[in-house]
Specification:
Length: 334
């Protein structure tokens, strides 16, 4: 009995405290309509978004998806392009904290080095949503959720397809790899998944692996070096379509036929990549969806309303062969 009474007293005290806080909060909101997004009284959510850059077709489609979905959801979007530089992202996030936005979302260019700025957002009471790429912070309370693909799986699917293709190969199969920007989650993870899958066949060997920064120019330049340094290249695994598309130019210039002399596997499945696959210049693509905007806006609303959201939300994806690309291309949105 005594215990129950103490509990009920405690509960009542908590309820009183909650209502005081609530009234205080409403009053504070009512008093200011000139402040940052976080203190406006129009009920509108303001999101500060720090984008990686504009390095690829995937990124362009992702940016469009985010901007369109914000408008559709009635969310005020503050958008910053970091030009593939972590220091620019940190600056943008600090600006959003100062502006008191309601939610900060960002796609971290690299995995490491975010703890300090994430702690600043947490101390300011601004929830953070990671989208597309994740961070390696040990403290998971620094962000609410991570919405994006399973990059290890994408690499693994690419590798498994190759293992199947080359199962009758009696001699060595020489693979070159174009990595994404150094330290990025999709570069680390796709490399890992692919490497694990091809370990199933000791004939499959990665003879060269370099970053091409997810860009066409990077892909072209590094592939030129690969072709100069290695007599026999059988397979190219590019961490995205754009680097694969850049590499096509280098391969053709070297007098080789892409898709025939060199088997080409990429990730993303953006329109230009799918076209190359349909044309037989690429041989296989593991899909990575950039259309994260609608889910992101939904999450922002939930987080702002204080709802609990799952710590990890994975994007649904598939893979494409040449035949499947021909079929899918007419209805492809990006
Ligand atoms: O695969 C690549 C882009 O983070 C999943 O970044 C994204 C990757 C995508 O530049 O094209």
């Amino acid at each position: 009995m005594g215990k129950m009474r103490t509990q009920s007293v405690r509960w009542r005290a908590a309820a009183v405290l909650a209502s005081v806080l609530l009234v205080g909060g409403v009053a504070a909101c009512g008093n200011s309509d000139t402040g940052g997004g976080g203190s406006k009284d129009d009920g509108k959510i303001t999101m500060g978004f720090s984008q990686v850059g504009a390095e690829s077709g995937w990124r362009t489609a992702n940016t469009t998806s985010i901007k369109e979905s914000a408008t559709a959801a009635g969310i005020e979007l503050k958008f910053d392009d970091a030009q593939q530089k972590q220091e620019n992202q940190i600056k943008a996030i600090r600006n959003y904290i100062q502006q008191k936005v309601d939610v900060i979302a960002f796609s971290p260019v690299v995995e490491s080095g975010w703890d300090t700025v994430l702690k600043e957002a947490k101390d300011a009471g601004i929830p953070v949503i990671l989208t597309d790429r994740s961070v390696d912070s040990a403290d998971k309370s620094l962000y609410k959720t991570f919405l994006g693909s399973d990059f290890v799986k994408e690499g693994r699917l690419a590798g498994e397809w190759l293992v199947e293709q080359k199962k009758t190969a009696s001699g060595p199969v020489n693979i070159v790899e174009l990595q994404g920007n150094t330290g990025a989650a999709p570069a680390n993870d796709r490399k890992k998944g692919f490497g694990e899958a091809i370990a199933a066949n000791p004939n499959l060997k990665i003879i060269a692996s370099q970053p091409g920064d997810f860009t066409r120019a990077g892909g072209k330049q590094v592939m030129e070096q690969f072709l100069k340094a290695n007599k026999q290249i059988d397979v190219l695994f590019a961490h995205n379509d754009d680097m694969g598309l850049g590499a096509l130019e280098a391969i053709t210039a070297a007098g080789k036929v892409p898709g025939k002399d060199i088997t080409i596997i990429t990730v993303d499945a953006v329109k230009d990549g799918m076209q190359a696959l349909a044309d037989g210049k690429f041989n296989f693509i593991a899909e990575c969806s950039p259309l994260l905007g609608p889910q992101l806006m939904d999450l922002a609303k939930k987080v702002k309303a204080g709802e609990t959201v799952p710590a990890r939300i994975e994007t649904e994806e598939t893979t494409f062969t040449t035949e499947q690309a021909k079929e899918a291309l007419p209805n492809r949105k990006y």
